[in-house]
Amino acid sequence: MTSFPSSGQLDPAVLRSRAYLSRVAEPASIPVWAFVQQVGPVAAADAIRRGSAPASVGSATEARRDHADPDIDLETAQRHGIRLVAPESSDWPHFAFAGLERCAIRRARDHERGPFTASGSGEPVPPLALWVKGCGDLAGIGVRSVAIVGSRAATPYDEHVTADLAYGLGGRGVVIVSGGAYGIDAVAHRSALAGQGQTVVVSAGGLDRPYPVGNAFLFERAAESGLVVSESPPGCAPQRHRFLTRNRLIAAFSTGTVVTEAAIRSGAANTAAHAFTIGRPVMAVPGPITSPMSVGCHALLRREPDAAQLVTSVDDVMAVVGSIGEGLPVAGLGTVLDGDLRAELDRLDPTARRVFDALPSRRPARPDELALRSGVSAVEVIRALPVLDLADLMDVSDAGYRIAARLRPARRPRTG
Amino acid sequence: MTSFPSSGQLDPAVLRSRAYLSRVAEPASIPVWAFVQQVGPVAAADAIRRGSAPASVGSATEARRDHADPDIDLETAQRHGIRLVAPESSDWPHFAFAGLERCAIRRARDHERGPFTASGSGEPVPPLALWVKGCGDLAGIGVRSVAIVGSRAATPYDEHVTADLAYGLGGRGVVIVSGGAYGIDAVAHRSALAGQGQTVVVSAGGLDRPYPVGNAFLFERAAESGLVVSESPPGCAPQRHRFLTRNRLIAAFSTGTVVTEAAIRSGAANTAAHAFTIGRPVMAVPGPITSPMSVGCHALLRREPDAAQLVTSVDDVMAVVGSIGEGLPVAGLGTVLDGDLRAELDRLDPTARRVFDALPSRRPARPDELALRSGVSAVEVIRALPVLDLADLMDVSDAGYRIAARLRPARRPRTG
To answer: For the whole model, what pTM was predicted?
Structure first.
C-alpha cells in the first residue's frame, strides 16, 4: 500500500477509515460523528461498510457505502498535494473545533433516544476529517484568526471596507479566514496576502477542483503561507448545502467573525449564526441604511439578546480578538470523566496533567501564561484545555482558565 | 401698562420679572436658576436690579442689569406675535423639563458651598422663561416627540434618511423637534410638515430675527401647526454658545433624540450628550464607515456604558418612543418634602394628590392609565408626575409609574 500523505505518524488503518467516512457521509451529520466518537473510526467505517451501523448512521451513509474507495481518494489527494488530517493527527485543530464539539456532544445526548432532525444549514459538529493544502499552522488555527465574510455580489463600499480590514489585520499577524468565492471572500484573501498576512480558504468542494476556477491562482497563493481546507474529499462538487455546512468551519476556525456586508438572509449571516452558536464573538460593520446589503449587518447589531459588536476599523477588531484565545469558550474531547479526583487525574495524559497542575485557583490565566507556568508549548496547552474543560477540572471565563470551582477553595489537589 | 401676551392668567409682575431675567442672564446659568427657584422671580429680579443678589448671580447678570427693559422686550414680542411663557404659566412644559430640573437641583446642591463652574455647552438646567410663537401644545411637548439632529453640511445620504424619518414620524403623530439651521434641521421640519406632522423649531436667538433668514418662511409654516421657541428674548443674536445651550432644550423637548449623521464633535453629538444627561433615549442611524459624517453616530452606538440605539426606520424609532411617556425618567419641582407621610401628602396640590391616589402599588401604570384611574386629564397627570417623583412618593421605571418602594408593600396610604 502506498504511504499516503498525512500529518504526523497516523495509523494507516485510521487514515483510510477517516477517508472513507469523509466520503460516505455528507458533512455535519451528528449521528455519524457521534457513532465515530463512540466506536472509533476503524470500527465505524467497518460497520457502515457492512451495513451494521445504527439506523440513523446507515441512512446517512447507505447511498455511497459501496462506492467509496478511500485509496482512490487518498491517491487523488496526493497527486494534488492535498493531505488528510484526522482528529487522531497531531495537527488536528482541537482548539478551533472545541466549540463545535461541545455543541455536538450536547445535541447527541439530547437526541440519544429520538431521531435526529436534519438541519438545512448543518448541525454544529466537527468534521470527520479535513483535506488540507498549504503550510499554515492548522493546529493553532482559531487562536488569532478572524473570519471576514460578506457578499459575493459585493458593493464597492463593502470591497473597500473588507480590503482595509483584511490588509490591516493580516499585517498585524491575524490569520484571515474566509470562503473561496468571488466578491468579499476573494477581496479578504487578496488583501490579507498583500499585507503579508496568512489566510485560510475554507472550500465547500474538493480541493482538487478549485471553485470558482477563476480563484484557483488565489488558492495557490493562499496555500503558500496559509491553508486551503475542505471537509469534502477530492472530486466533490461544491453543492449548495455544502456551502452552508462549510460556513460552520469558517466560524470555528476564527477567534471572531466580522460581517462586512450582508443581506438579511445570506451566507454571511449564516456564518455569523454559526459563530453565535459556538460562542465566538461576532462583529458587524455598519453601512448605509439605504443599502439592502447592509441590512444583515444592522440586524446583527440589534440582535437580542447578544448583539454583534460594531466595528469600523482594524483597531476595533483587534480590541475584540486581540488577546490570545481570551474570551473563547472551549469544549471537550471524549466523554466526561467520573469517579474520584485521583482517578480523574490519573486518566489525563501527561501533557494535560502538566497543564492542569499549572492552572491557577484564583486569577484566571491565559494559554500563554499557562505555557510559561507549565513548560508545555502554547500549542500543546491549547490542545489540552478542552480535555480539562470537559473533565470539569477547569473553569473557563472571558479572563482565562483556572481550576474548577468544585476543586476550590480547598487546597489545590496535587498527586494524591 | 399694556396687557402683554402670555398664556393663561399670569400675574403681570411675574411676567415682567421673567422677561427681565430672560434678558439679564445668559441661558443655562445654574446660580441664576437656583436663586429664582429659591426666592421667586419677582424678588430675584428686584435683587438683581438692585445689585443685592448673591455674588454668583450678580456676576452672571451685572453686564445687563441696568440696561434690560422687560417692557420693551414684551412689546417687541407682541408686535411679532411672540408670547412669553413662564414656569408659572399654565402651559409651561413641566414634563419636558423634568429631567433638566432634576439635574439642576442636584448640581445646585453639589455646588451649594462652592463656586459654580461654567460649562461651555451649558449646564443641564431649565430655562428661566420661553419666548414662543405658534399654536402647538407646549405643555404636552416631550410626551410624543422626537428630536432629529444632524449636520448643517449634510450629505445626500443624511438628507434622505432624515426626510424619510421625519415624514414617517410626522405622519404618525410624532412631533418633530430640531433647530432652525440649514441642512438636517430644515430637512427634518420640511419633511415632517409634508407628512402633515407638527414640528417644534428651537431657535438659538430671538424669534423676531429668524436665523438663518432663508428659513424664515419655514419657521412661519412650523408655527402654523407647531411651535417656534427660544429662551432668548427678542433681538438676541444667535451666538455660538447659545447654540450649545439651545441643544439642551432640543433634547428636553423630545421623548427621544435621533442622530442621523454627526461628525465626532458636532452640535448633533452635543444634543445627544444632553439627552444622555437627562436620561432620554438616544438613537443613532448608522452610515458608511468611510464617511466622516457617520463617525459620531457610530461612536454613539458603541458608547459605554449606555450606547445609543441603532435605528434604521420609522418603526425602529416608534419602538423606542412609541408609548406615551413610557421609559422617560421624570424629575421634580420645588424641593424634597420632609416629615411624615401625612404632612407630605397634605402638601400636594389636589390634582397631584388625585394622581398619587391613582398610583398602583405593583404593576407600573402609564400616564394615560393614570388619567383613566384618577379622572385627571392626561396633561394634568403629566404635570403632576414630577411633583410626586421628587417628593419620593413614586417610583419611575421603563414600565411606568407606581407608588414609591418605601410606601410598599405595606397597605397603601390613603388620607391618613
So the answer is: 0.76
